[in-house]
């Protein structure tokens, strides 16, 4: 975790933002896969 | 890149993760999963995974909202001062929006993918924890933990309802077991961190009613928990494996509560070992009790 009280550089700031974006992209990607899977299950069950 | 000095560093992903109280979430996921596995019917594994994910997301959203509301209180307590908001690593609006987003998404996905009843109970549990407990009861009454314990008791009920789409006596009993487990679990903790709660003005039982009364109540709730944990067997919801496990585990819980209930701290240097032992065992107790419930169901061939 980062300590905001330490003096920071633009490079450090960009690194934190890049990491955050990567995690967000992974989470969103996982949700896309999950929703696709739920849809297939619902169609097969005849409940979609 | 140029080494330009900037004012603040944005919160990183680990700050968002710690906002969800991962330790609490693991217990919520476990009890929710056990509620599902203890149910007499099954849904498709992907839907079951989604239901447990929604329970976890709802709990994570509630935790984030709790930290948003209590940021100032957390700053005044040693145990919570390093959380992202009091430590200044995240602003309050971000935490609030993160909590609302998670909570809303969990209810919507539960309603659309699983069933409406499970979504309604999940919504009630989020409201119960974030509003009834965090905003309303916790700063006002020493009974906050007793009533607020209901919020933590919802996951097995939601797991059960996700599987069956129906509420019967069994999920209500599972709810009551966690409801009765919460006061001795939390008051054991409050006994050895009570100076922190007193400092920030939270009316926890040891602060308001005193240590002696809290200790007696820990003992009383632990005594009630013993027969209550056997009710699933009495009503025919489980077999002898669960009954034996519950009798041993709840008997031990009561045994650990007796020294806590009958003693008083010897002085400021008291290490509070019985209280710490009870707190640690109470976490293990809930894991093992629900594990016994699932083991009983699995061995019964359901």
Automatic annotation (TrEMBL), chain A:
UniProt entry keywords in alphabetical sequence: Membrane, Transmembrane, Transmembrane helix
Membrane-crossing residue ranges in chain numbering: 21-41
The protein's name: Cytochrome C oxidase assembly protein
Organism: Novosphingobium aquae
TrEMBL record, chain B:
Function: Converts heme B (protoheme IX) to heme O by substitution of the vinyl group on carbon 2 of heme B porphyrin ring with a hydroxyethyl farnesyl side group.
Species for this entry: Novosphingobium aquae
Membrane topology: Multi-pass membrane protein
InterPro entries reported for this sequence: Protohaem_IX_farnesylTrfase (IPR006369), UbiA_prenyltransferase (IPR000537), UbiA_prenylTrfase_CS (IPR030470), UbiA_sf (IPR044878)
Family: Belongs to the UbiA prenyltransferase family. Protoheme IX farnesyltransferase subfamily.
PROSITE patterns: UBIA
Reaction(s) catalysed by this chain's protein: heme b + (2E,6E)-farnesyl diphosphate + H2O = Fe(II)-heme o + diphosphate
Enzyme class: transferase
Top-level taxon of the source organism: Bacteria
Chief location category: membrane
Alphabetized UniProt keyword annotations: Cell membrane, Heme biosynthesis, Membrane, Transferase, Transmembrane, Transmembrane helix
Membrane-traversing stretches: 20-39, 46-69, 107-132, 144-163, 169-197, 218-235, 241-262, 283-300
Name of the protein in its database record: Protoheme IX farnesyltransferase
PANTHER family listed in its UniProt record: 4-HYDROXYBENZOATE SOLANESYLTRANSFERASE, PROTOHEME IX FARNESYLTRANSFERASE, MITOCHONDRIAL
């Amino acid at each position: 975790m980062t300590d905001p009280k330490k003096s920071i550089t633009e490079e450090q700031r960009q690194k934190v933002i890049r990491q955050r974006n990567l995690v967000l992209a992974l989470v969103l990607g996982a949700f896309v896969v999950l929703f696709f899977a739920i849809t297939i299950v619902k169609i097969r069950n005849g409940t979609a | 890149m140029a080494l330009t000095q900037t004012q603040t560093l944005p919160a990183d992903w680990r700050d968002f993760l710690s906002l969800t109280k991962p330790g609490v979430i693991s217990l919520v996921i476990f009890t929710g999963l056990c509620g599902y596995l203890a149910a007499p019917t099954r849904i498709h594994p992907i839907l079951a995974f989604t239901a447990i994910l929604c329970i976890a997301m709802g709990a994570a959203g509630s935790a984030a909202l709790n930290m948003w509301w209590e940021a100032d209180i957390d700053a005044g307590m040693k145990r919570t001062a390093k959380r992202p908001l009091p430590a200044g690593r995240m602003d309050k609006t971000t935490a609030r929006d993160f909590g609302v987003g998670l909570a809303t998404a969990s209810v919507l996905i539960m309603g659309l993918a699983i069933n409406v009843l499970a979504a309604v109970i999940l919504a009630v549990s989020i409201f119960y924890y974030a509003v009834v407990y965090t905003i309303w009861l916790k700063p006002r009454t020493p009974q906050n933990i007793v009533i607020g314990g209901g919020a933590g008791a919802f996951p097995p009920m939601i797991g059960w309802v996700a599987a069956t789409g129906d509420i019967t006596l069994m999920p209500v009993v599972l709810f009551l077991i966690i409801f009765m487990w919460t006061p001795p679990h939390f008051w054991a903790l409050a006994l050895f961190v009570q100076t922190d709660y007193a400092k920030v003005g939270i009316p926890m039982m040891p602060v308001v009613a005193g240590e002696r009364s809290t200790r007696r109540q820990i003992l009383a709730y632990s005594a009630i928990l013993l027969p209550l944990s056997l009710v699933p067997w009495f009503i025919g919801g489980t077999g002898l494996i669960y009954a034996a496990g519950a009798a041993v585990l709840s008997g031990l819980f009561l045994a650990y509560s007796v020294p806590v209930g009958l003693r008083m701290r010897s002085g400021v240097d008291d290490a509070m070992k019985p209280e710490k032992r009870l707190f640690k065992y109470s976490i293990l107790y809930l894991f093992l009790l629900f594990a016994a419930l699932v083991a009983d169901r699995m061995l019964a061939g359901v």
